[in-house]
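Supplementary Note 3. Input sequence used for the single-chain structure prediction.
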Amino acid sequence: MDIDYKLNTLNLDNTMSDAIHLLQNRPIKIVVVTSNEKLVGTITDGDIRRALLKSYTLITPCSDIMNKNPHYALENDYMSIKSLLQNYNVIPIVDNEHTLVNIISSDIPDKKERLPNSVVIMAGGEGKRLQPLTFTTPKPLLPLKKKPIIHKIIDRLSKYGLYDINISVHYKAQMLKDYFTNQKILNVNVNFLEESTPLGTAGCLYLLKTKKITDPIIIINGDILTEINYIDLINYHKKVKNVITICAAFYETQIPFGTLEVENNKISKITEKPIQKHLINAGIYIIDDSVLNSVKENTYLNMPDLINMYINKNQVGIYPLHEEWIDIGSHEDYEKAKK
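The predicted structure, written as C-alpha cells, is reproduced below.
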C-alpha cells in the first residue's frame, strides 16, 4: 500500500515530541528522518519507548533516538521490496542517490477485528478521594461530558477489537450493572465479576477461571483514561515473553531548590531546581493466563502482591507509555479529564 510519504517525514532537528505526534496520528506507524530529502534514519514506536527508558526528553532531537541503519529498498527493485515486506510492515523507498521517494506498507491493521483477549476493568473501589461525588455514584460512572468514565474506557478497548469485557464490582455494584443493562455498547459482551466481600485489586481474577482463558488478559483500573494502542501492547507482551507486563507512565517532580553535588568536601556542581523523572505504575497490566493459578478462591489479594510473586521469578517487564494517560484519582484530575 502506498501512502503520502511526506506526511511521515521529519528532519534531524525535529524533536521526540514531533515523532510521537506523527506515530499517534498517522495510519502508518513509522517516522522517516531525512536530511536534504535523503534517508538518514527511522523512528518506530519501539525506538520511542527505548528512548524514554534512557531518560531522553520530549525535546530530544530525532537524530539522537532514530535507528541510523534502517531497512530500505531502491525504487523499482521489486524483489528486494517483496523480500523486506515479508519481515517488515513498512519500508522506505529511495532512489540511487538515497533520496526518499516513497514509503510502502504491506497493510494497515484492521483494528476492528475481534481479538480473543479478555479484559478486566477494576471498578469495585469506593473512590474515597473523589467524595462527596462518590457518595451517590461509583467513580467509574462519573460523567465525562455525555458518557461515564467506564464507557469511555470500553469505547477505547472496542476500537482495538477487544469485546470480551469483565467488570469487577463491589461498591454500588447494582448501579454499574443497571447502567450496562440499559446501555448497550455495539458488539461488546459485558460480564460482571461480583465480590460478596472485598477481595483486593487482584482477588477477583479467580472468577475468570471458569472461562477457560488461553490468551493474555488485559487488566485496567476503572479510573484510567489513555490513548494506548492495545494491539501494540499485546504484541509487545508476546514478543518479550514476560508473564506479566506493567504499563509504566513517566512522572516528573521538581525540587524547588538548587541541589549541590559534593566531592571530597568541595562542591563539584550546582543544579538549579532539577527535575527528576520517575517510572510509575499506570494501572494497566497484561498477564498470561497461567497467572490465574496464583489467585486462590475467596482470598484477599492486591495487584502489587500478585506482581511481586512473579518479580521474584524475574518474569515481570514494563511497557513504557508515551501516549496520553490520566489517572482520575482526585477532583483536580477529574476536572482535567472532563476537559
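The chain has a mean pLDDT of 88. The CA atoms of residues 245 and 317 lie 5 Å apart.
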